[in-house]
Every structure is written in structure tokens, then in C-alpha cells.
Amino acid sequence: MTDITLQAEKGTSLWEDAWRRLKKNRLALFGLGLLTSFVLVALLTPWIAPYAYDAQNLDLGATPPSSAHWLGTDIFGRDLLTQIMYGGRISLAVGFVATAVALLIGVTWGAIAGYVGGRVDAVMMRIVDILYALPFMIFIVLLMVVFGRNLLLLFLAIGAVEWLTMARIMRGQVQTLRKQEFVEAAISLGLGPATIIRRHLVPNALGPIIVYTTLTIPSVMLLEAFLSFLGLGVQPPETSWGLLISYGAETMEEYPWLLLFPGMALTLTLFALNFLGDGLRDALDVRRSAD
Amino acid sequence: MSLLSVSDLRVDFNTRNGHTIAVNNIGFSVEKGQITAIIGESGSGKSVACYSLLGLLPQPPASIESGQALFEGQDLLQMSEAELRAIRGRDIAMIFQDPMTCLNPFMTIGDQLIEPLVYHKNLSKKDALARAKELLVEVGIRDPETTINNYPHEFSGGMRQRVMIAMALINEPKLLIADEPTTALDVTIQAQILKLIAELQTKRDIGVIFISHDLAVVADIADQIIVMEKGHLVERGNRETIFRDAQHPYTQKLLAAIPSNTKATSTKPPEPLVQVANLKTYFETPSQTVKAVDDVSFQINKGEILGLVGESGSGKSTIGRSILRLLSITDGTVTFAGTDVTALDKSGLKNMRRRMQMIFQDPYASLNPRMSVYDTLAEPLILHGLESRKTVEQAVLKLMDDVGLARAFIRKYPHEFSGGQRQRIAIGRALATKPDFIVADEPVSALDVTIQAQILDLMLDLGQQYGLTMLFVSHDLAVVRHIADRIIVLYHGKIVEEGSSEALFKNPQQSYTKTLLQSIPGQSLLAS
User: Fold this and answer.
1) B131 within some domain
2) CA of B162 to nearest chain A CA: how many angstroms apart?
3) A181 to chain B: nearest residue by CA?
């Protein structure tokens, strides 16, 4: 209860301050703008895509970019722009959802282990170690066999693997932070562990977490491509950027645009994420602000 | 001719936040065989002035605008980096405030000591080691045969500073610059190090520049004193003139800031608020049990300020934390207003914590860097339901008024404040819940002397206004004497002596207390 009132009453909160600072960072704003437009396109794809995603034209075959097909077509004569737009829906969804799952579990798990310490920490981190040691592929194959193949499961499976590193980073951060006097001060004020973690520890550990998150999103997208390539993820005619890239790579000598354009879509997303991540880290670090 | 003669030195800083003149046309000279003390608060430019001579300031942001610094007739400021490097560590050596950060933790003392010998003088390793051992003896380190192979963490703070001094002296410099060399040390160790520096200076007939914020520290050893304020040299003179006949108001302010008076004993009948009985707090390490607090009993009366004095490792901070249950105790009871604090459950403890608060030593670590003044002060008020969301802002502003912070600072973050201001925020946070009892753990030891005096006065005022009882933990007897009604002296986790401030200072019973009292710097000059 008390915390809700605190949040409401803050006036300028950490996040509002951060937003004000972020607005001054052009590169970060550019990244944010690019990401937003990608997400918007992904959401609106069914209505704005120039062709149907499964429309083939075998007579056409693979053609370079033209006025009818802006980014060319693949060997089945499917429009590449349409493919990239539909692929973006899956790739972005996997990237954001799986990372969000990883972030939520990892940060909570790591913060609790790091703050409580002692035996609880030992048990929690051994669990992380065991999961690390588990062969990832077997884990996913098992999941698919038991529950059947579906997209949601893919999100969860990837998220369930990616949170491990997040938890370790968070635990390390919290272990250094909890020895600081401001945490002791918070305890002596009578704050409970949950509030201390949420209000005093997590905000101070955000820097490395944000940087790691911006690195996780693209790696999750590639992981999805890998799984799809093995037949464990998305299947044609559905597609994703990862799949488009791996098909493109096979034929890049004859039809380079099939690799170039999906590759560009992923690279641009990655750049945008990095710019935004750097900007966010700086914006959240109150010490960097000159005002 | 002077050993070092500086004239017309001006150093500017150009940063994103603007242009500042850190050192504004100062001139001074250092004679061979004399100690010159440069005194001033943080930001007065005293360190910048010295660092600029040795080319130790990063340029930019710093730029040396004008000046001349003749060291044995050569102008340091005109030298190339290569020429300066040859002089640094050979003819001019430095000692810093924190010996731990200046020593490489992965190298033995011996290896670090001989490095400059091998580098500057091309001595063989064997000869260099022999020389290093002689020096360790000279700076008062016993048994150099074995200690020379030790790593920095195996030494205490005082011993590390001795090693630093040995390292500075190894190339037989003609000028030694000591930048706050005793600020991080206990008062008894400080007295030893000061004595050592003075002895070495006489014996080797070298010039010393001693930089400090504390006039009392240099009172016993300085031949010449230079006082700096905001980049200007405001007063200079020999020791007696400065202490007896200071002209500039700033020097007078510095002198007045040295805590010296004893607080008058109150006449109210004692009524115990906190009772500590047979308190034991032990720390288990794999190899041994450290008895940080070993069977200590005392009481703190309502409205009283009890001083808890001792060196590092005496258990004084542990007692404070044990009372507040920030540490789990091994045995004993702590009673607060009739309630046994050690037996409280979760909700009882939360309630109790409203009434017992703590002020921490380091105002740079005790405030959450990502919470503004408003967030920091509002948190306890709302947590304990003392204010509603509508009234909390008013309450925060009232607190800021009480601790002397301008209301305009309400949305600022800790890094935007000076040490003294930060400590005011921390005091405000401790007072927010209107507690009855406060543990102040070395609240002024990280602050400059003038700021110390302000914070101590503030605490005294607020103590009156809020009707506070206080446990004031400190290693600095002069400070405790100024603020406390009664004093307890601790040594190795046990109470050595207890008594009213006046009695303890006039007539100490135990030899340890006497040693502590004698270690307070500058007594001879200040007493008269």
C-alpha cells in the first residue's frame, strides 16, 4: 500500500527525470524512433503488406528489386518486402517477449539471491548452475515433444534459458550494493526486504542490466532463427528474419538481395537497440546529468 | 635561495559546467629543512596548486594560465613531461591520503619499494632490497626481513602510511609533498605519523609541504603556514603568528572551528532510556572468533549525548549497530524505554525503528544515489504513516528547513551536494520519524573541519529542539568533548573508562585514556 502512494506522490520520479534526459540524446531518440516504426509496421503488416505472405509466383522465380517488388522476390517468386514484414512480427515478438520474460525472472531471482545471501543464495544459484549445465537443445526438444510446437512455448523456452545470465549479473550487482550504507540506512528506517530491493537496489543496478538486455534481444532473435532452421520453431510459409537470413545465406552467391535485405532489417534493429540502450543507461544514471 | 619558490601561479578548470579559477595567482616558497603547511577546505585549491607543479593534473580540463615554480633554480612549469618524470619521485616525492589505494595490492611491499630505485638509479635488485630494509627500519617498521615480503593488505592503516613514507623517501628526495597523510588514520596513529614526518624532515634536512584541512594537525609540526580559501592565498605566516594573531577572518574561522570547549554537564536527574547489559557481539570467521564487543554494559539517560570513543577495531561502531539490531548479537540484552529490543518480532521491530535512528559516517555512501532529497526524506514519513500524500511535501520542506537545506534543492540528487550538505540530508532522514534516540556513527569524520563544526552545532541544536537522546560514536576525542555529556572509552571491545566529559578530560584515570588525550593534535598552541 505504502509504496503505491509513494509512486503517485513523487512529482518528478526517476523515470520522468530519465525521460527528460533521454530526450536530449539524439542518437537514443533516433534508435527509439526506428524501433517504434518497426513495431508499428509489424503490427499493421496484415493491412499494409503489398502481397499476401504465402502468395507464390513460380513463373517469376528470384528477381532483383523492381518497381513491382521493391526488394525483389525469392526463388518461389514471393515478395521479399512482404516476407520481411511478416518475419518482423515473429522476430520482434520473440525478441521482446522472451527478453521480457528473462528480465523479469532474472532480475527478481538475482536480486533475492544477492540480497538474502547465505544458504538461500547458495541454493538459488546452484539451481541456476544446474540449468546452465542442462543441454539447451534437449530441453527445447523435450518441451516441443511434450507440449507440441507452438509459438508461445518458443517464447517461454528461450526466456527460460536467457534469464540465467541476467540473474548472475543482478546478483553480482546486488552483492556489492547491499554492503553500502544507504541499504543499512533503509533497514534502520524499518523498510522490508521487498521494498529495499525494489526501491533501493534495482534502480542502482539498472546500468549493466540495460546494456545486457539490449544485447539479449538480438541474440534471442538469432536463437529463434537457429531453432526454426532445425525445425523446432517457425515453419514455412510462416517466416522470421532469422529464417530469411539463413535461406538467404544459402543462395547469396546467386541472389545476394535475399541475404542483404533481411540482414539489414536485423542490423538496423540491433543498432537502434544499442543506441537506445546506451541512452537509457546514461539517462538513468543521475550522476551524469549536468542539470 | 629557497628550495622551491612559486610565484604568480594560476590554474583554471574548463569543464562542461563552466570555467573556474582553482588557484588564483598565489605565490609561496618552501625552504630547505622546513615544514610548510598549506591549509584550506576541500575545493580551496590547496591540492591543485601542488599537483600542478608536478604535472599531475590532467590537462584539459585543467590549464596552467600563468606562473613560475623555481625548484633549485629550474622552472617546473616549463619542463617537458620527460623532464618532470625524472624529477617526480626522485627530487620531489609525494605521500597521499589513502595509502591503500596508492599501493598495488598484488605486489609485495619490497617489490614496490625497490621499483623506483631500480628505475631511477639503476641499482641491482640485491642492493635495492638492502636499502629498502634500512628505510623500513627508519620509518618504524619492525622486523623488515619478513615484512618486506608482505602484501599491502597485511598492514594496518598506520603501517601502510609508514610504507608510503618509506617509498617516498627511497630516492632521497629534496622536497616531500604530503597530501592529507593522516586524515584516514586514528588519532593515536596520526600522532605517531606526524612525529615521524617531523623527525625525518629534521634528520634529512629536506623541505616538506604538508597539505591539510585541519589547522590543529599541523599546529605541532609546521614552521610556516599558508592559508588558502577559494583559490586565493589569504594568509601566510609562521606557526605562532597564525595561531596567536590570525589577521584574516577565514583563518580566524578555521581556528574557531577546532573543537575545544567542554560541554557543560546538565543537572537534570538521570532517567535511563537505553540500557545495555552484558552485550556481546562476536563475528565468526573460518579461522577464529572475533570478539568485537565483549561483555559491555552501560546506560544512556534521556536527553543525554553519550560519547563512545575508541580506535578502529575497538568495537564502537558495532555497539551502535547492535543496539539498533542492524547486527545480530551473540549475547546480552538491550532495553529501550522498557522494551527488550533483542526480543522484538518483525512488526515490533518496525515500530521500534521509528523511534531509534542512525546517522552514518560516510555521507557519500549512506544516501541512495538515485533518490532525490524529496524521495529520501519522504520515504520514512510515508512508510511509518506519519504523513499523508497531501501533507508529505510540506513535512519534507519543514525537515529541510530544520537541517538548514535550501528548499530549492528538493528535487536534487545526492551527487549534486557537498559532503556537509549530504550529511544534512542524512540527518534530516534520521529525524523524519521524530525518533527518541539516535546513533550517530562518526557523523563528522568524513568532513572538513569548518563543516564539522557546523554539523556538530546543528546536531546540538536539533538535539535540543527534538528532545533527542544520542549515542555519538567517534575516534576523535576533540569532537566528542565538544558534543557529549558523558564519555565511554573503549579498547578491544571492552569499556576502559567511563565518566562525564569534564572529569574525563581533566583527570583521566586509565593510561589508555591518557594516551588518547595526548594524541589530540595542537594542544600546546591551542591551550594558551
Assistant:
1) no
2) 29
3) B366
